[in-house]
Structure formats: C-alpha cells, structure tokens
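Per your request, structure below.
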C-alpha cells in the first residue's frame, strides 16, 4: 500500500507542475485503474501519461484525456490493446496535441467495435492530414472528432475511402479540406454502397487535377444521383467520369444536365 501511495504522490507532483487539472484527473482515476491493472502495471501507466506531457506545450490536455479515459478503455479491451491505444495517442501528440485530444475523445466508440489493426488504420488516416501547412492540426482534429458518426453511418470500409479523399482534397489547401470534412453525409450514406464508392473514386480522380472541382463534385453528386432514376445512375456516373477525364472543368456541370 505504501509503495502505491508513494507512486501516486510522486507522479501527482510531477503532473501538477504542468497543470492542476491534469493532476486532479490522474488522482481521480488512480484507484479504479489500480483495481483494473494491478500494482505491477501502475508505474508504466502513469509514466506513459507523464511522457505524453513532454511532447509540446498543449500536450498536457492529451495526457488529461488519457488519464480520464483509462478506466473506460481498460473495461473494453485487453492490456495489449490498451497500451496500443495509449501509444498511438502519444505518437499523435508529438505531431499535434489538438488532433491527439480528439483521437482520445473519439476512441471509446472505436475500441468497442474494431480490432487493433483497424484502429491503427484509423489513426494513420488522421495522421496523413497533419503537415507543415497552416491549419492542418485543426483538420486532423476535425477528422477524429467526426469519425464516430461517419463510421457508424457508412461502415469502416467506406469511411476509409472518405478519409483517402479528405487527404487528396486537403493537399490543395486546409480550407478546402475543412469544407470537405464538414459537408453533411446523410445523402451520401443514402446512396447504395456501390454507387457511393463510385462517387469516391470519381471525386478522388478529379482531386488529382483540382481540389476545388473535386469538392464541388463531391458536394453535388449525392443530391443529384438521388433524384436520378436508379436504372440510369451508374450510366450517369460513367458519362461524368468520361467527360471529367478529358475536360475536368466541365465535370461539375455534367450531372445536373443528365438530371434534366
């Protein structure tokens, strides 16, 4: 008991030097985490949180979410998975504290449904949005924030396509990337899965030539396709693909014309 009290107070004092809120979060969950991990794992758990703080000036917020969520995560997954969860958050925090905070906040939904390899794929998709461009950290944070809703609506396989398109559009500017991420997904999710994938494929192809045109086509496609009779939807997309390949600037005008 004494050794655990010493460990508890030692890390509390170190964390307190960064933020009282951080130290309070650590102290609050310590007893429950102890009951879940056992004494032999407590030093490693506390040390991971402390190391996270040293990543950059806002990283204490990541550590706070790490500590706050630890009991929830430890009840959902085994120890190996929990350490991977913490490791991925720590690696993200080195690149962007803002993104890492949203990663931790969204992770309980994710860990309840998917395995380690899928979680790694999710983290990598968000990490690809982080660059030296101004605003890319906010972009990655928005990605992690929106992930649970989108994965729930379209499934992880289609979500990966959505994430890949986000990366392509964001290469043309973080503002375009942010606009893409924040577009409503309800009409896109209402499309049959095969047609939804066709929208992703066509838009991604156009994004190699113009991020602005790709964003416009992505925004327009679901609404127009839902108004076109089912029997002509696939044909409409094929016509749009053919024209956009030769005349990218005309791609956005094709679907409305077909609808008429």
């Amino acid at each position: 008991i004494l050794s655990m009290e010493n460990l508890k107070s030692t890390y509390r004092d170190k964390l307190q030097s960064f933020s009282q809120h951080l130290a309070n979060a650590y102290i609050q969950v310590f007893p429950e985490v102890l009951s879940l991990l056992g004494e032999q794992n407590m030093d490693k758990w506390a040390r991971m949180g402390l190391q996270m703080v040293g990543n950059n000036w806002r990283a204490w917020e990541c550590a706070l979410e790490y500590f706050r969520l630890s009991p929830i995560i430890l009840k959902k997954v085994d120890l190996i998975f929990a350490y991977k969860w913490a490791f991925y958050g720590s690696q993200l925090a080195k690149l962007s504290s803002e993104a890492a905070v949203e990663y931790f906040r969204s992770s309980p939904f994710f860990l309840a449904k998917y395995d380690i390899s899928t979680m790694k794929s999710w983290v990598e998709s968000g990490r690809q949005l982080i660059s030296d461009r101004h605003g890319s950290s906010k972009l990655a944070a928005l990605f992690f924030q929106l992930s649970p809703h989108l994965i729930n609506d379209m499934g992880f396989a289609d979500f990966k396509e959505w994430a890949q398109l986000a990366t392509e559009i964001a290469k043309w500017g973080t503002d375009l990337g942010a606009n893409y991420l924040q577009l409503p997904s309800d009409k896109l999710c209402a499309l049959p899965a095969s047609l939804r994938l066709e929208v992703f494929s066509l838009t991604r192809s156009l994004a190699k030539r113009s991020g602005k045109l790709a964003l416009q086509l992505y925004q327009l496609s679901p609404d127009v396709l839902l108004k076109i009779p089912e029997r002509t939807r696939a044909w409409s997309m094929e016509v749009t693909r053919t024209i956009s390949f030769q005349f990218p600037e005309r791609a956005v005008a094709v679907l409305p014309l077909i609808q008429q």
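The longest helix spans residues 136-170.

Regards,
D.
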